[in-house]
Hints:
four-stranded antiparallel sheet, alpha+beta, 2 domains, binds ligand HQG, Arc Repressor Mutant, subunit A, about 180 residues, ADP-ribosylation fold
Amino acid sequence: xxxxxxxxMSKFISLILRHHPEAAYIELDEHGWAEVDKLIEGxxxxxxxxxxxxxxxxxxxDNKQRYSFNEDKTxxxxxxxxxxPVDVGLKEQEPPELLYHGTAAGFLASIEREGLKPMGRLYxxxxxxxxxxxxxxxxxxxxxxxxIHSGDMYRDGQVFYLSENGVWLxxxxxxxxxxxxxx
Length: 183
Ligand code: HQG
């Protein structure tokens, strides 16, 4: 069996619980839950080493608190970031006046033309501080940060959600609501 770092295992679990449950031979229910026992068995079938203690450690120590168990820890799901259409019971919430989005310089022309779109995911992901946004942007290339006038969007009727792990989510951001900031 392959020994994996907890970080790589967490990334693999993200892939399973947000995008490709079939990668571990499992299914998610409509609320995004997977059965913990089946997830563990499925990950083992891929040749990776995991057990309940390690899974619990990964959930507890994940740097972005990406996962939650249900109360009796028989089910697990990702808190946000899905591409498959699941309803994790996101709560509508009034956003702060400003939020931030980090992206790559190469995407800017298209974003300025079309606005921010969810692309492969269910929502556009926004952060409450510039630093987090810059780190998100770095995953895609030379980072660029956008300041989002979320207060104006909200007053204009747009719905925002705050995930369990503190990520702000919305369906779309029109170009008139953001500007690039110098980082
Ligand atoms: C860009 C990570 C061209 C968008 C992070 C982004 C986050 C456009 C990319 C979470 C566009 C999509 C999500 C348009 C948006 N034209 N490009 N019209 N509209 N884009 O990975 O926000 O570590 O799906 O700017 O922390 O980067 O996985 O979204 O660059 O919270 O837990 O299209 O993923 O969390 O990329 O990241 P993504 P994201 P985890």
